[in-house]
Amino acid sequence: MAYRFAMGPDGAFGIDAHRWTPLHASTDGWVESLALAAHAGRWATAVTGIRGKAAESLDLGGYEPVPEVQRLTDTWWRGKDSLVAPYRGEADGLDAPRCLEAHVYSGLDEWGLHGG
To answer: Could you list the residue range(s) of the whole structural domain that residue 18 is in?
Structure first.
């Protein structure tokens, strides 16, 4: 791998690559992000991967941030029937915009959006 996962001096969880890039404010946020990805992937009717410029141009107007993931560089957004996870960490940490990636989990009902 071109980077390693690490903890920053402030407790942030991130990657140590070309430069330090914090992904989540803590390991708790990272674990929440992983759990949300597993949950959303199970309940979505479709999961779409988007990369590069297409991911950069995603319109997240009308979406609200998901606070549990303690977002810094990698984020999650909740819409009326979908979750969007833009992953910027590798793109920023490696100075490689082509590595920008987003996953769109669509067709979610209330359980799929929030869990229990």
So the answer is: 4-114
